[in-house]
# Entry
Amino acid sequence: MDTVETNAPVVVGIDGSDSSFDAVGWAARESRLHGCPLHLVSALGAPTPYGDGIRLPPSYFADRDRAVHGHLARAAAIARDVDSAAAVTEITTAVLEGPARPALIEASKSARMVVVGSRGLGQVTAALAGSVAVALAAHAHCPIVVLRPPAAPTPGGGMVVVGIDGTENSRPALAAALEEAALRGVGLVAMHTWSPSTLSTVFDDQLDLPWDEVEVAEQAVLAESLAGWAERYPETRVSRVVVRGNSADELRARAAEAALLVVGTHGRGGFAGMLVGSTSTVLLHSATCPLMIVRS
# Structure
């Protein structure tokens, strides 16, 4: 993940869907917490939606541009209405050239985080929904936050939950989660899950493992991951949770009423070359609270 400038903005991708407008309110409060600008962006899309050689109505591009600017104006109004007492330091808008995915990935290079809704206007099936969010999770240069409908809880309510697997891949997620919890003044639930399948690369015979001893070892994994962080965030209460089970299922259940769920892009047992780990992929399509994905 690239180094973020001190006053880097929270960027929100707007496509005119209800999901993207829900994301604006959340992002406006988030920018206030960080004391940074809010930047609302909307992409024009491909030069022509039907390919070369197809004749479009003369008014197509004018109508498209009018719609994009209208979406940004509505988003800016939502951001201003979030808190009448100047919720956001600064609100800016921009129209991005080209399709949304590459445009938002480029915008992420100078962003504190990128916030998007999980479903856009082009939703056809569950498999296709959220393609922009999937692309950002794999390629963004900063953390991304995905909000699923209905409108997710706003920052400040509930705890922050973070998934920790004991590898270096989860350290950026832990750092981001601690910062978010400290800004909100809430506690942090640091959750470590394990299952026989995650240990299969270490032990040849899973069935003969002394599970009580494994449990103690997994507790030590979480303790080691958290070592040194209490000194950096002394006012943030950290609850440690170690549970045997499927990581995506356990994190989703624990975060059902959380203010934010934070995960990395790869976990223990992930394959080299994978862009997004299985846990983060599942949560991307199923988490009921705001989900922050922090790339390793």
